[in-house]
Amino acid sequence: VIAIKDVICYKDHVVTAASAILKNFTSLYTATALQYLLDEDAIIIGRCNCDEFAMGSSNENSAYGAVKNAADETRVPGGSSGGSAVAVQANMCMLSLGTDTGGSVRQPADFCGIIGLKPGYGSISRYGLIAYASSFDQIGIFGKNTDDVRLLWEIMSQPDERDSTMHQRTRVKRNETVEKKKYKLATFSQAIQHKGLDKEIANTFITTINSLKANDFITDELALELFDYIVPAYYVLTTAEASSNLSRYDGIRYGYNAGEETDLEHFYCKNRSEGFGLEVKRRIMLGTFVLSTGYYDAYFAKAQQIRRLLVDKMEKIFDEYDAIIMPVSPSTAFKLGEKNDPVTTYLADIYTVLANLCGLSAIAIPLFSHSNNMPFGLQVMAKSGDEVTLLEISEMLMQQSITAEVA
Length: 407
Ligand code: GLN
What we know:
Elements: E1 2-5, H1 32-39, E2 44-48, H2 82-89, E3 95-99, H3 106-112, E4 115-118, E5 139-143, H4 146-156, E6 184-188, H5 189-192, H6 199-213, E7 218-222, H7 230-245, H8 264-275, H9 278-291, H10 296-320, E8 323-326, H11 342-347, H12 353-357, E9 361-369, E10 375-382, H13 387-398, H14 400-403
Parallel strand pairs: 1-2, 1-3, 6-7, 6-8
Antiparallel strand pairs: 3-5, 4-5, 4-9, 8-10, 9-10
Bound molecules: glutamine.
């Protein structure tokens, strides 16, 4: 029994990306990933609220209103796939689909105390997924145990010729295992020492690393000098891609139409001004600006260079290490309405966007409870295509013996 985020197309069902601009729009076809699940007789129980066009970290940017965290209804569930996370958290379904462009599966999973997997870029077809930033977007999975999550990933990661960015590798066989070994894990000093990181989360993370060392893992702390450039690079590149992807919503062929207008330019302007929410408009403007003549080299090209440097760095790390571990979010779920400054909100994506910039597979696993009673966990990242290793490590970490000492 599976729920899906409101950005995944399902033939003859409404899909709106939680936006007024797509009010009552009905899908003309079914997303490949969803079709693979339907072929296996999955029951699609419903469509979940999210941040408009998957832009946000709290599910408060939705035309339908906010989603509440089932563990504490005064708090956000995280975003942008907040509805999909709560649907699993509150046992409304067994598993759900979200999308993760910069953490939108892992961060809500962390805020809701469940598992959130973002497979590597190119692992699951994006055909039939409403695009936010195409070189970052990936369908992800929420669940309560690694076996269920793995099953869904195996089904959905079948090839699809309609998404040319998919891996051409042979499909992982069902129940394929990786050889058990002493895993080598890396972490970054800049991540642990980050000034925005909640003290209790930081202490738990450090204790966990020590406990892992005592439990047959090799863990090393590495330096990532580019750490402070990760979030700016992400927001320059994703808004640029979004400004291009969202230019198709003009109210002429489909979607919101503001009514009579004689002048075409004003017609577009009215449809888009009334149809899009504030955060989406902010990102379209930001993206248009960084792509504009005169600013392209200063922002877009620079951000691309940072992305390249990060990709190279990650490749080097994965030559030596099986996985990277980090916190998922600098805080636990915050209160509804608490955060309204976009820059502060963007900066909180510090731990999740690296995986999307580099196309890595990454997972958030629930392990701990904060003194404010909210859940939080750990993030594990591996090479794209190495999801089996990622899930094996996650399972080991979730076994009580390893983390018991921390609690
Ligand atoms: N918080 C990130 C953002 O607002 C995550 C988006 C996502 O993964 N869809 O861009």
